[in-house]
TrEMBL record:
UniProt keywords, alphabetically: Membrane, Transmembrane, Transmembrane helix
Organism in which the protein naturally occurs: Microbacterium nanhaiense
Spans annotated as Disordered: 1-20
Protein name: DUF4012 domain-containing protein
Pfam families to which the protein is assigned, alphabetical: DUF4012
Transmembrane segment boundaries: 29-52
UniProt key word Transmembrane: yes
Amino acid sequence: MQNSVAPGPASTGAAPQPAVKKRKRRARAITWTIVGVFVFCLAVMGVSAFVAKSAVDTLMAEAKALATDIDDSAKTEKHVDEMVSAASRAHWATAHPVWRATEVLPVVGDDLRAVRLLARTADSLVSDVAAPLLEFDLSSIGPTDGALNVDAVAELGKKIEEVAPAAQDAQIRLIADGIETDSLLGPLQGPVAQVEDVLGTAADVLRRLAVLSPQLATMLGADEPRNYLVLAQNTAEMRSLGGNPGSLLMLTVDNGRMEITHSASEQDLNSGRAEPITPLNPWTEALYTDRVGRYIQDTTMTPDFAQTAALARAFWGETLGDPGDAVLAIDPVVLSYMLKATGPVQLPTGEKLTSDNVVKQVLNEVYVRYPGTAPTDRAAQDLFFAEAAGAVFGKLTSSSSGFAGLITQLVKGYEEGRILYAPTNEVEAKAVSGTRFGGPLTVQSNDENTTLGVFVNDNTEGKLDYYTDMSVKASSNVCSVGDADDKTFTVEATYNFNLKPEDVATLPYYVSTARYFPKGQKSTNLVFYGPVGSTYVSAKIDGQDFVPQAGTNDLGRQAVLINFLSDPASTHKIEVTFSAPPANYGPIDVRTTPMIKGVPVNVESPGCG
């Protein structure tokens, strides 16, 4: 009898049906396609990132080399070509569809987008702004035969007018793109913020220069001689803007040729008058007393250079005639910067001034050389100041050094607040409005930067600030409290009086007159300014509560004055706190008096990144 077999499923050893095979092949193909695309994208992104990084490194290296070789037209052209090529490569490497597609990824998408936008901006700036500007041969400006070439300056002005709109467009596009810096990875936040700041500064400077460009040749006396009243600030006797402007010069520029045509001191002016020469702002008088308008030496006590310039013009005009077309203020540190570019100068008295010794010669050695109180010694001091400044200005148009190197040094002086400028011409005034040419506190808003101020005014009658230096620390809770909470801003100044006690007896009379304080002792007024719209909270000296001697609202800000005495080889810490209402506050920026030594500033804003 045969065994029966019940019907059931096919044996497991049976071959798969054709449809199953087809589905598996399709799945494998899709899988490998996805893997292939992913690997391709990774390869593209890897190559792109490498190309972009390499291009940016080249761009930065060439820009640094350009700063050194700016006076050599052949080297400049080579550097510019390399920069244009590098910026283009960085843009190309980050602008393709694969890069854009990865911008949707979580975590890194925003960072990739930021890199692409910055590469595009760099390409635009280098190709449309920097390259056309640097095509201009700066050496054509001169000096040649003792004068700057005013026609070349006019040509440069036209070139600036042509490229300024491109910088503006690049800035507007980047703002419109809306990079959220706070959402980026840590290593990118700093560079992105730096690029945005540089772009903003470049666009603003070019815009202002474009406004000024029709006047550039005129400012160099192309049409008729141009006269500048120069305040030579003595930073051995500090004032808010830099120093005692006891030496004044009339600088005449005629068709590019510079000459000091008149020099004066406070003895040639009606300084020490019973009433201010022009009415003072009441808040200025409240902080600094009416001395600001009664003594030419005190006109720079206020950080408002427009007011200083008006007072200086009035003092000069009262006794010496036409005060010129503009007021310019400089200090011996600026002279040292200029001498770095031009080389040393020889004075008629035999002294050789260099970038290394001019500060010491002008601010200290002159009083050792002419130590007496006789009119002849005082006249010799004033003559030395005038001859030193005159020799440096004369060197500007007789030096064989390139013009570009001088511009670099002047920009440094401007950024440190050592060059101030107040023109009477409306076009020039518009171009410099709101810049540091008008003083350290010209901006009346906290939106872009929250500016605080610490300014030094000597109260001793002497030149003891040659032996001082200062550092500043600022802190705020602006990023660590709620949006609806008041903000606090604290500024601490560490003030060092470095005079050695054993040197007091040998100090010349004009360094320490000992008329109001014992010889070698120093009286100092520090004036602290809070942010726009702030109010004063408290003050301390060396950790002890202190009541300021004066306080008011100046330049839209709460300001207080604190006086203290310093013995030789002593240090004081002065701390002032301000409060400000809820609002948008930009990064903290501390402005100080430009002292002989730079003033280090440390800012602490917990939670601000």
